[in-house]
Amino acid sequence: MARGLIDEPEWDVLRGTATKRAATPLWIMGHSQMEFKAGRRARPRMTMRDVAKGLEHIIHDSTPETILEPSLVILDYLQRMRHDPQDGATRREQMMEAVNMSKDLAVSYGCPVILGVQAGRDVLNRGDKIPTLQDGQETSNIEQSSDASFGCWYPIKSEKEGNRIEGWTVNKNLFFLRLLKQKLGEAPATWALHVDPERRLFANMSNEKGLKL
After folding, report:
1. What is the Cα 111 distance to its own chain's centre?
2. C-alpha distance from residue 59 to each of 56, 66, 103, 196, 204 (Å)
3. 138: left (phi over 0), alpha (psi -120 to 50) or beta
4. How far apart are CA 184 and CA 177, in angstroms?
5. Domain boundaries defined on the chain
6. Cis-peptide, bond into residue 188, ω within 30° of zero
7. Rounded CA separation 67/63 (Å)
């Protein structure tokens, strides 16, 4: 666009996408840089009950009546969530309860809930560093509660650039995604993807034109 090389069909795609995006509200709950700079106070992390209350406020008090239910909830990430006293006495119990409450959100609102989970450091000692269902830090509840689970590995963060992994060359564009569990389908399955970190695009490695998946 900046070079003036975009043609009319591409403009049509952009116009349609912009209209769709403008009609789809995106809400971010949690940290606010504006409030932090103004107050200079530590920003508290949210509990899962805070998230549930926030969703209720968005749905019933802050959006038009035509938008009755969320389409997608993304929680980033499990280990950073603050826990209420009633969530359990140990860290493990608290994490398991957070997973249970994430599942409850999906059931209550009838939408996908994506829960980010940090893997333990043990994965760094393996040749294949894609996390498994057992690698989620401090919780085993992920395997039982999730309908689908994925493991992600960005090799440039752990391997030397130029090394080869299963026929792929390690560089900033190589990304591995593995389907670990699928409630109503086959698993596992692994894909090598082409990632463009600056533009946040993922594509099939066989397609060098940045095709969105």
Report:
1. 14
2. 5, 10, 19, 34, 36
3. left
4. 19
5. 1-144, 147-213
6. yes
7. 6
Q: Is the pLDDT of residue 209 over 80?
A: no
Which stretch of DSSP H or E encloses residue 153? strand 148-153
What DSSP element (H or E) covers 51?
helix 48-57
Q: For residue 199, what is the DSSP state?
A: T
Q: Are 111 and 69 in contact (CB under 8 A)?
A: yes
Nearest to 124 by CA among 155, 149, 150, 95: 155
pTM: 0.74
Residue with tokens 């090389």: 5
> And the tokens for 210?
């940045």
Q: Is the pLDDT of residue 98 over 70?
A: yes
Between CA 139 and CA 134 the distance in angstroms is 8
- Residues near 70 by Cβ (< 8 Å), separated by ≥ 6? 55, 58, 59, 109, 111
Cβ distance 130 to 117 under 8 Å? Answer: no
